[in-house]
Specification:
By secondary structure, the chain is an alpha+beta fold. It has one domain (about 5-80). Helices cover about 40% and strands about 20% of the residues. The protein has 2 helices and 3 strands; from the N terminus they run βααββ. It has helices spanning about 15-30, 40-55; strands at about 10-15, 65-75, 80. α1 (about 15-30) packs across α2.
Length: about 80
């Protein structure tokens, strides 16, 4: 790798459907581990868990449930999701 190609690239993504879908699928998978839930109860629980995730732990990386910024460092080969300020 040459000095010229050693740089950091920030990629700003706006994808409300994709981000929501991924969070929703993770919530469904987590709740599926709970036995005895019917479909209606699970749908309500999934919505509640998705809201909790977006308002809590994901808030520092995902803004308005649709914006995320990834930084790629070509020197170290690392990609990082940046905290939103």
């Amino acid at each position: 790798m040459t000095r010229r190609t050693k740089l950091k690239i920030k990629i700003n993504l706006k994808s409300p459907d994709a981000i929501h879908y991924c969070v929703e699928e993770a919530a469904k998978q987590k709740l599926a581990e709970s036995a005895g839930m019917n479909v209606t109860d699970m749908d309500e629980e999934v919505r509640a868990l998705v809201d909790e995730l977006f308002e809590g732990p994901l808030k520092k990386w995902i803004v308005y449930r649709e914006y995320v910024t990834i930084e790629i460092d070509t020197d170290t080969g690392m990609a990082t999701v940046l905290e939103q300020g």
